[in-house]
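Table S7 (text form). Paired inputs.
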Amino acid sequence: MIEVPPVRSHCAFRVLACSVALVAGLQLSGSVPDFEAQVAPILEANCLSCHNASDAEGDLNLESRERAMKHPDAIVPGKAAESYLMEMVSGPDPEMPENGDPLSEDEVLKLERWIDAGAKWPEGRQLADKKPRNLDWWSLKPILSQTVPENGAGHPVDAFVNEMLAKNGLSRTGTADPRTLFRRLSYDLTGLPPDPQSIDAFVQAYQAAADQDERNRAWEREVDRILASPEFGEKWAQHWLDIARFAETHGYDKDKLRPNAWPYRDYVIRSLNLDKPYGRFVKEQVAGDVLYPGEPDGIIGLGFLAAGPWDFIGHYEVGEAKRDGQIAKHLDRDEMVSTVFNVFQSTTVQCAQCHTHKFDPIKMEDYYRLHAVFAGVDREDRVFEGLSPEQLEERNVLIKEINTLKKEQLEIGARIDRQITAKLSGIDRRINEIKEIYGTGDSPKYGFQAKPDLKENTEKWIQVDLGKPTNMAQIRIMPAYDKEHKVKEGYGFPIRHRVEGSNDPGFKDGVRLLSDSGGTDQPNPGIDTVLVDVGPPSMRYIRVTATKLPPRLPFKSDYVFALGEIEALDAFGKTNFALGKPVTTSDQIADSENWRPEYLVDGIYFKEPSDGAAFEELKALQSDRSRIAAEIRSPKIEARKKAIEAEIASLSKQLKRFDSNSVVYAANANFVMRSRFAATDGMPRPVHLLNRGDLGTPGERMSPGAPPLWQGSPETFDVDDANEADARAALADYLTRKDNPLVWRTIANRVWQWTFGKPIAGTPNDFGRMGMLPTHPELLDYLAIRIRDDPKQSIKSLARLLITSETYRRSSDDNIENAKIDSGNRYYWRMDRRRLTAEEFRDSLLAVSGALRLEERGGKSFYDFVLEKPQHSPHYEYHLHDPEDPKSHRRSIYRFVVRSQPQPMLTTLDCADPSISVAVRDESTSALQALTQWNHSMVEAMSKRFGQRLENEGLVSSAERVERASRLALGRTASSWERQLLGEHLERYGPASMARVLFNLNDFTYLD
């Protein structure tokens, strides 16, 4: 029987023995296994994936003998029976390897003999993870050609869907009526309401068709017409921008503007309208500048890499010389890497940052190889057209010269700082000590002092006005300090006093006594703060009254009243309500540099002065510091700094010759240095494998590569490590390979989602083992092959295939029996109803009211806020925006998107968060949405516009106005009871109010 060590955690029990097994009690004999040939392969194939320097689960690292033996009882040389890791895999159901098959009996015996023989391990021998990658997962398997089921459907999509319905005992609904179909088509492909004339023309053609084939042709003609419209790209670009985390500010705390982000948005719209081959669309967004030199889209597409949030403070104010800046850059690359693989590959590669992926075949090395791919680019403005190759080269030379000078400028500053720090460290330390011990101030503002008096019992007072009744928890009174007098600490503190509060400035009514020394003399508090507990009720005024004054030593002929500081604190002791508030007094000493009423509430005081030299020493030290610093900044150095500034100014003036309006915020390796991160000029920064994701524990330097997620895919790229452009080009080729099953399944899944409202695989950014399985895997592969093998790799063609199916045209009618089996409509027995997206709702308000400026496409984004620019961070004030401003009456896709302060109305209506890749939007129903759709200023303004439109169209009777309004807003005629109710409402409240009612109907807000 094997004895279990007494103190072991359950976690350690599970993970310490991932690779070995022992048949309990079995005594074995035979030759000692050779470590290199027989033991190391077992450990490397089964253990190292979890027990390495990066993971070291259970505090066990098996990379070397030295590290393995640091664990007290995992491997006990000569005693296999006492080796804990052996014990853990014994028995009929061994716990380890945790994510793999148990070791064979032969492997177990080899390991046991090896340990019993002393666990000999050649000195210096390092083991590495050689566990085979488990590619046995639906998304990683090759995409196989799918045979369309022969069930008489007549359309491949219907054939796959109907077969699944039959397997699950579901019946499909009928076809929706032509008006519903046309409204559905218009919103799904353009995001806009159809005009009544187009609806009528389609309904007439559809109803006049002699048979189903003619109805199909009428439908297909409308599909083709709308797919060819510019509105298609504007609608579907929003889908892409959601996953591309596009916005026009940096995010984080300062959230500064990106005035040149909009060209990427226009690029996406243009690419979709031109039906750019999907493979090229992918390549342009990863390495377009390399693969398509001289073509504007090859540079604009790189806006994808730069579209996400960017830490201004970490990059601009901190920089790569400091750890916080290095962390900012690491997270910046992580954001690029994560988005590329989430969007194009539906793969959560970011989960391997600190350890090998727990579920998917992605190692830490794979993750950091991807970092090496992006190690040479930053997010910066970049010229994309208007310059010849020669001009671009000349411009780049100027940029390099400017950056070289700026680096020298930074180095001079850093060198001076280092010299000052070295020479002045002692002085600075003493200055800090004085400030720490003696107070927060560096000036001799002692506090308040009243006029000296000849009588000790003369009452004198000071009073603080807090501005409004305030709930205080405590009042703190700091004694004064005056080095000129014998009693320095506690100078002038009253022998007797009282503290009162009131809401009456004259202290006649409602006076509350908070503290009173009564008729007893009190000792001088010296350096101690006098505390007065307060609590409710609230009070506006605080008054401290001295009733017996101390003598003004060494002058014994008069008496004095003085205080250093008064604070009124909240319950947490953090907020001082008295700071900077008005102070009134019974009287005060003649105007003095050191004694003024306002000094009593200025937050500056010497807390613990022990001798009169503290302030003088502080001033002398500061004077010495200034003198030494000036000596270090010699005239020679100052002259060089001025020369650098002059050279930079001269070169920058030359650079302006190449200024162009054709600038996009994108991935860039060659730019004028504006932050504390310099351009790499194509030379990647070194990237190391970080043990447990910690920048403080770098491992081996990584070369560019990617996870080999399918058979035949490369692990490392055959590129020059010194050329970042080639690495990105290699990644672009990796992503778009024909044998890459992920990229084609991913886009097929997204196109289905953008058409039907939900994806076949329910987690579009994660096809891994923690994601959802596809409901129709054969259909998904059929669609993936369709776009992959299409010579044009056409997204429009794939969308057309889906929309022309009978499945897309089904009604949204309910079926009780179907709902019992498939309440979530996973198998598409009907069409889902859906709410208009936030952008569709806003655009519909504009379109129906007649305010939409549809022809104003592209270009700089419009503001639907008032921009305020204080010193540090811009403010985006949406409530100050005028919804009647015609500049903002463009489609929502052209709205300036802010990260930190999203548009309130659109956010309430489930607009995507632009700081993350949003694969599937939320669709909620809340009271706040109803309030927004009724009360928002945009709704109010467009309701008035809609009412004016009805009046301007010459409609006289209420019935005509109700009918026209219903057809414009709902795409149909009003029912008899709607005509009656809306007509009555129109007569009573006017057309603007009736319009607001229409904008809040379900038939306006929802499709179907």
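Next pair, protein 2 of 2.
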Amino acid sequence: MLTSPSPLRDVYVEAPSAGRADMGRPSVKGKFLWVGNRKLYIRGVTYGPFSGPGSPAEYGDRNLVEQDLSAMAAFGINAIRTYSVPPIWLLDAALKHDLWVMVGLPWEQHVTFLDHRRSRRAIERRIRAGVRVCAGHPAVLSYAVGNEIPASIVRWHGRRRVERFLERMIDAARDEDPEGLFTYANYPSTEYLEPRSMDIVTFNVYLEDACSLDAYLARVQNLAGDLPVILGEIGLDSRRNGEAAQAEILRREILTAFGGGCAGAFVFAWTDNWHRGGHDIVDWSFGLTSRDRRPRPALAAVAEAYADVPIAPAASPRISVVVCSLNGARTIQECLAALRRLRYPNFEVIVVNDGSTDETEAIARSYGFRVITTAKQGLSSARNVGLREADGEIVAYIDDDAYPDADWLGYLATAMLTSTHVGVGGPNISPPGDGAIADSVALAPGGPIHVLLSDREAEHLPGCNMAFRRDALLAIGGFDPQFRAAGDDVDICWRIQDRGWTLGFCPSAVVWHHRRRSIRGYWRQQRGYGKAEALLERKWPERYNRAGHLSWAGRVYGGPSSGRASRRSRVYQGVWGTAPFQSIQPSARSKLRSLTAMPEWYLGMVCLGVLSALGALWHPLLLAVPLYLAVLLATVTQAALNAGRAVAGTAGPGYTGPVRWSLTTLLHLMQPLARLAGRLRHGLTPWRARGLRSWALPIGSVDAVWRERWRSPTETLERLESSLRSSGAVVVRGGAYDRWDLEVRGGTLGAARLLMTIEEHGGGRQFVRYRSFPHWARGWRVGLAGLFGLSVAALAGRAWLAGAILVAGWLLAAAAMLRQCGAALGTARSAVKETQ
């Protein structure tokens, strides 16, 4: 290895350590790394090794390393990534120059390491020994427990086995350094590997085109969920591409990485001098400096790009931040203090005090923000007040129990400026330290979520973190005042999309959102969400199925591991494992997991419990008791399993205790029940019916209409659909595989379906036929048949009281089904006559 004086000596500057050893070690908070109260952006390069593993000269002589580290600091680099465990003297030198070190823990990743227990144990011993060398050192940024396991090796062992092994190795390493941060350096060929115990998502990505890199980073950010993303390697070979191209492409890659919300990046590599597989690598030139440390143009380009971190938006449109509060004195102070720390040059804050009776108004005024006090009118009305008073071209909304990251507005503005979206939102993450109940609520279902149609386009944005172009909100009339506490965000997103506009998602535009800190508060929140679902179903019935459930077109995200792949997901590997980008294909959620999370599941359990109780009057019904107990056991078991997955999906110590798991299980059981209470109280019931203006016998029939004026089939059906909707009926269009054109819903139990055909008779004359027929809900038909059989059996057994109760139940259900189907048919036939 060359040890001659470096050509960079003239630019070496000692970077003061500023007592960094006393500042504490890095920690993960949401999508970023922090040291104390300061956000840490990693501006890194990879470094070494320069000779064979275990060699005393693996990192060269100390003088040359000292010169290298000093030069890095002078060029704005603040971190190095090693591929082997560095000696303590190198960590000391890095600390002296204010450089962080991502420590690589090397082991045999290119072989079938899981085939032999001896190999697995040897790998664990190596990892533990490597961490012990560095444990507690203030220069350590994190540990990389593995790097780019080949796709063929993962395919050989199976994805899940490799993930479990990596999780065990991370847990073993954490035992040696409990305060350390841990990652696995992945790459696109095995992007589906997601060890749940890692703290940072690290990807090595070599994409020279900035647009391709930007698109792939959006995918990686969503795979990472709420964890920070670091690019473990980016680089370009100057020998094959030229030094000018290397400089320009690296500059663009760095700006793209940080503009895409990455917490850091490492450029591969500091120098061309590199040793791998027992040999010096001499046929490429990825280094920012040559083997003799001659600087390339790429070094200055990288330093210039790193100096621009964090990336400011190209322009700074005026943004009005609106905070709506009702008795939010307990949390609003934290929100407003964080708003004052925003790093954005052109914004205002408007606090709408919606009739608070506590100190909310006084607290808001003490921060110097504009405060508008109104009578208590509800959340949507308060949002509209803020909209009317805003003077920004973008209006951003945040809840009074949330607080933003300092770069929140910058990321939102960039997402707006670089797209045609009229609305953009970002993640809302539960802050640490809120207590055991709040931490469990964060792992429970029913929290504020975002729904993505793609890596960048959203179907829904949660109200605690959303921003819109002001003119778009005004064009649709603002928020609907009927949504006084929840549901306003869902409604506004649907109305925007109905205009043909789109919504975007920016994973780096983070807000911290406190979860409920009591079980009673969680119950009330979920019951309120049930009410909002009832209001939304009444306004948007076509977006709900007959049972009253919303089917999102996109992927629902929520919880600490929301973006992470399901264990049931399949891996797209290509024929013979040849796909260069091997990705996740989500599998359908199991039916049991879906059923037990539905509010109506609990209603069915009540009915089954009533049948079991009737066993006291007619002993054969006691057979329902084991079934009821089995259903109850399945419900509790599924809640426990779901809670276990949520708890296991959180990183760090203290998240897997039995108390956390038990409490989270309880919340999984409570949430559907609370939703059911809110839905039933506000009209979203299985027996609901609306907009049905006439009745007919629930039997099929054919109506025919002769007309002299030609009209297209599409126009005919659209007129009929419009007439039905104007009457308040719930109408659904048939799909591409359906043998019916329109469905008129009578309710949960029954509906009417219409099929149309047109005979052409020349001269514009048409003979139109409509076939209408009832459609009975299959599950209810089976239930009615079973109930009828039980009724007959009870009466035959002379259990008169039990039989009478069963008969009464059957008659009520049958009458409801007949009423709903008949009303839907009558309404459909009336509309046919009126529109011809």
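The chain has four domains: 9-307, 319-557, 584-681, 701-777+813-835.
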